[in-house]
Amino acid sequence: MLRVSIVGATGYSGVELAKILLYHPEVELVDLVSKNYVGQKFSDVYPAFRGKLDVVCKELDTDELAQNSDLVFIALPTGPAQAIASELVGNGVRVVDLGADFRLDSIEDYEKWYGKEYEAESLLEEAEYNIPEIHKKNLRNVNLVANPGCYPTSVLLALAPIMDKQIVDTTGIIIDSKSGVSGAGRGLAIGSHFCEQNENFKAYKIASHRHTPEIEQELSKLCGQDVLVSFTPHLLPVKRGILSTIYLDLIEKVDAEELRQIYREYYAEAEFVQILDEGELPEIKNVVGSNACHLNLFLDERVGRLIVVSVIDNLVKGAAGQAVQNMNIMCGFDEGLGLSGFGTGV
Amino acid sequence: MLRVSIVGATGYSGVELAKILLYHPEVELVDLVSKNYVGQKFSDVYPAFRGKLDVVCKELDTDELAQNSDLVFIALPTGPAQAIASELVGNGVRVVDLGADFRLDSIEDYEKWYGKEYEAESLLEEAEYNIPEIHKKNLRNVNLVANPGCYPTSVLLALAPIMDKQIVDTTGIIIDSKSGVSGAGRGLAIGSHFCEQNENFKAYKIASHRHTPEIEQELSKLCGQDVLVSFTPHLLPVKRGILSTIYLDLIEKVDAEELRQIYREYYAEAEFVQILDEGELPEIKNVVGSNACHLNLFLDERVGRLIVVSVIDNLVKGAAGQAVQNMNIMCGFDEGLGLSGFGTGV
Amino acid sequence: MLRVSIVGATGYSGVELAKILLYHPEVELVDLVSKNYVGQKFSDVYPAFRGKLDVVCKELDTDELAQNSDLVFIALPTGPAQAIASELVGNGVRVVDLGADFRLDSIEDYEKWYGKEYEAESLLEEAEYNIPEIHKKNLRNVNLVANPGCYPTSVLLALAPIMDKQIVDTTGIIIDSKSGVSGAGRGLAIGSHFCEQNENFKAYKIASHRHTPEIEQELSKLCGQDVLVSFTPHLLPVKRGILSTIYLDLIEKVDAEELRQIYREYYAEAEFVQILDEGELPEIKNVVGSNACHLNLFLDERVGRLIVVSVIDNLVKGAAGQAVQNMNIMCGFDEGLGLSGFGTGV
Amino acid sequence: MLRVSIVGATGYSGVELAKILLYHPEVELVDLVSKNYVGQKFSDVYPAFRGKLDVVCKELDTDELAQNSDLVFIALPTGPAQAIASELVGNGVRVVDLGADFRLDSIEDYEKWYGKEYEAESLLEEAEYNIPEIHKKNLRNVNLVANPGCYPTSVLLALAPIMDKQIVDTTGIIIDSKSGVSGAGRGLAIGSHFCEQNENFKAYKIASHRHTPEIEQELSKLCGQDVLVSFTPHLLPVKRGILSTIYLDLIEKVDAEELRQIYREYYAEAEFVQILDEGELPEIKNVVGSNACHLNLFLDERVGRLIVVSVIDNLVKGAAGQAVQNMNIMCGFDEGLGLSGFGTGV
């Protein structure tokens, strides 16, 4: 059994990790680290785990973690993961970081978009960014995985199959994304206050969201040239889910069925990605609680544009689920092991 | 592998059954019967099942069902299950009925509360009503289980431990229950229209809800005398969940800790029932998606009353989950097999 | 024009007051006091007021307030209103307090339920508690009105007509109330965090809510004997609205139509109270945004009990609307002036 | 007093009209026509109107309507308004049509996008399409106003000030709109069923929504050349509100403050349009219940694009409110008369 711990266990990604790992057949869940709930039972913070996971939350102690764990998930706000991952990897523990600290190749970009100094330069080169269905990296000997961001996952899965196909203009991509409130985390803020966000909807961080450089970095790699995008996130009055509507100018006339075929082939082996039938609408409810991505293509021949719509659960495929998928790959388990959970949509 | 089919597979209880049975290790899911979607793929009706359960929905044909299935779940509105169950049981197929057709011992009560003639009198005697944590019936040789109603399950689990203890006045019980909209089913109705029910709340069927005689029948058996209750259901603007707040007059002064001990002992072996810690509040979100019941006791010594609060997921412990639990008992499987799914509350 | 100010203008009751007073034909809205937003435009805090109320929020300065205002609404958490009201009334300014500081006659009760020392004893005797439809007090010479609490308003309007009629047992009243989240105010708390409260429902402060003594005090006055009640508040996943379901044991057999007639007569002159038709269900959506109270009676002859259901908007009839209604009475305006606003329910 | 009637009074636009007109100081509300509720009290269908508007709904009788009314609002699904408006205008009654039957200049477009034959050709020329803040038409002698669609209103208000300024490329406009469920009307449909749409989000009618030609027609007029757009509507799990996020390629480098100045000047006299401060986010909650449009500009210099975000209440500025605004103009009343209602956002 793989001994696994979670740093940041009581945040929304952390608790989702706990849920998935609890019944993972190859994992023994060891330490749950939570700054705010040291000494409290995990099931007192999340009573849904009562009778299932009643362990007590611990303070961060990387030495102890390293001793108890073969692999550690870090699910913290950006920043502290740099030092924690450095210590853990230095002590021979493998790490999957769910934050943004190891996603950007360019330290300059990191410091510009995240507004803080970068302090883990040496470790950064070891880190592997991996959406399994796209990058298909062999992680057996990798010690640090930079788990992709939620918005980037929804966008990259939608665009990967055509970025190098010379079908669409990769220089003018517009991404209009909508996320549930859990994406903003468990920290109290007026924008996440029930009466301020229920029956509401807004765009936020327009032209300035930190996932923009991550999206651009990966799209650029996929098409082999520098790509800039317009990325506009919005806040939905739902708990979970991201829907991205992506607009692409067609370079040439293209056949809808051929396009679909390109996507179907690209994801032929990908159990978690579903290309919907022609005209079928991706809906957030159909992926909530699961590691699935549903996507579909809409060709607007009248205006010469392709519209791709994708949906994921931001806490699963956009965070904890994909992190476990990466853990499975690191450890040689079946890629989808422990990830069969899903909701009915009701 | 047990060959299992569902009649009424595209209703809200039906789809929940499909979800649970899909990964049940001892079950092979065979026929999905749905009047409204004959010939359509189940995953077209519920795209969350895409890639998981793409079988085509069938018309009802009890002969074919009997041939293909060892056990059939019937998840239909009250009425038609009487004939269907009769045919299936007559053909040697075991049945779990999620509707109300075999729950009431008294045909008179059935006809009075449901307003239709009863037509399965001979089969009624064979039917066993079973909340496993309370009735603990041995179902190995039973061919027809009457799965308890959602409201009654939330009430009976809350009251069973004290009904025969001479602690509370069993003649003046008041039950104030609140349910999510899925309890009203998938049939279109103005009361389930989004704009009419979001940001809304109301009581309904006050003093006239059909679950009243079921609750009274079972409470009466538990305490050995005839019990009448006030039962008021309300409609919450949530998809799932039932919370029942139950008021009981104390016959004598009672110690809070003793009371808790009675409950803890009663449910000592019950993995799905959690007695919360003193002062801890049962919340719907903590049981949504799981077969759990959370409950707690609040002693109001100032007014001499005991308040019991319970929560369940109306579609799981209140329907499909408990039905599978009963199937497990009928077949000699572990009682909780296939029922470990749960949500985090987020 | 009456010069009116609000202390606590950016809280949820405060902003509702601002909305009502903005178009009140006899009122000039003068100072908006808000501790947290001193120096900021009110319409920056609540952009819905943009172009309508762009004044800057002020720090509390009772001398300045007294100079600028004829009447001040205090909409603060319990406590500070005692000193503020004392200074204002002492300076000849009339006050409507929306908090709990002047509602309880008994200082002992205040100190027991609110857990703090009471410091405005001399002023307390001047304060008048007034639900206009019930107490019908002449407030022309009153300088301090204790505006009733939200839950008590929903309960007292439901029960006032029969408390002294010897029809129901006034010693065993059970009140099961459900409120929207705005009742918990704008202060950040995990219980009001969107992801913790959406799709959720729970009871809270069972047998211990501070509105209990207020309800009991007023019910006792209405029936002329000491009344104790069971009062259980619950938190609904909606912004606004309170529904109270109240259970009363009948002393004698009673005719439903006679009962309705008692209510109709009691509220014959009350424009804001609607007795619904027989069988019609009070729904929160029908009173949201208005000063109305809808209520109905349900006689359960089977068990000898009367069930009264009432709905109000906790921020309007339960706070700001009733406060303006009281202001109108204090000033000799038409009681309903400025209070014709309502929502359609959609 | 202007005698006014509503055809389609119990639909969601109809009831909003009723609410606004009820307190309009120059209007006497006469007949409420509703096919589905003939003979029932309006306040039985919408109990929020209890004690305010208890009149009985009538069957459609254009002769009677013409006799009783000076002006009629038609709030029906597309189609029947053609005949009804023809009869009414023929009988000397003025009409505001809230549907799509008189919005498109081109009958060919109508028949292509709406899929039915057009039958009111002669009347079409008389019809005036009017967003008062943009078209500023003098309607004193106009007998038929085609009230703009909800999505088009949100888009045109956002774009009108720059369409002819040679600042943005008017040939590549992308419009990503999100609407509350009330936009789909009161007709029962699985997509508006509470359990199917709560906690959900989806795009729909991608590249095929019927408001597309209306948007293109008006944008073309504004810039003096043929404009095609990508228009993608989405369905939000809220009752009301539309937010449109609009992407425009800049033709040349432009100064943010100059841009804002263009908008401020364009709307200098427009009381219902608010240009927010730099960086301030339009939010649906801030316009719900009001006739306001909030909009803001976001210049993304990095990618050379302008993003305009607008919000309206689809039932008010997107339907009933704008219709009353047009009525006011037709009748020489103050343009904003009766339209001061708004919500606080809570």
Q: Which percent range fits the helix content of chain A? A: 25-40%
Radius of gyration of chain A: 20 Å
Greatest interface: A-D, 45 and 45 residues
Oligomer: homotetramer
User: Which shape of chain A, going by the Cα principal axes?
Assistant: globular
Overall pLDDT of chain A, averaged?
A: 97
Structural class by helix and strand composition of chain A: alpha/beta
User: How many beta-strand runs of chain A?
Assistant: 13
Describe the strand arrangement of the main beta sheet of chain A, using strand numbers. 8-9-7-10-13-12-11
Given as residue ranges, the uncertain stretches of chain A (5+ residues, pLDDT < 50) are none
How much of the residues of chain A is beta strand, in percent? 15-25%
Q: Please report the number of helical segments of chain A.
A: 12
Termini separation of chain A (Å)?
A: 35 Å
> What is the string of helix and strand elements of chain A?
EHEHHEHEHHEHEHEHEHEEHEEEH
Q: Main beta sheet of chain A: strand number and arrangement?
A: 7 strands, mixed
Tell me about this structure.
Four copies of one chain form a homotetramer. Chain A has 346 residues and is an alpha/beta fold. In chain A, 29% of the residues lie in helices and 20% in strands. In chain A, helix 1 packs across helix 12 and helix 8 (150-159) packs parallel to helix 10. The longest helix of chain A has 16 residues, at 316-331. Chain A is globular. Chains in contact: A-B, A-C, A-D, B-C, B-D, C-D. The B-C interface holds B 172, 174, 176, 178, 195-196, 199-204, 206-207, 228-230, 232, 234, 236-241, 243, 245, 247, 249, 281-285, 288, 298-300, 302-303, 305, 307, 309, 345-346 and C 172, 174, 176, 178, 195-196, 199-204, 206-207, 228-230, 232, 234, 236-241, 243, 245, 247, 249, 281-285, 288, 298-300, 302-303, 305, 307, 309, 345-346.
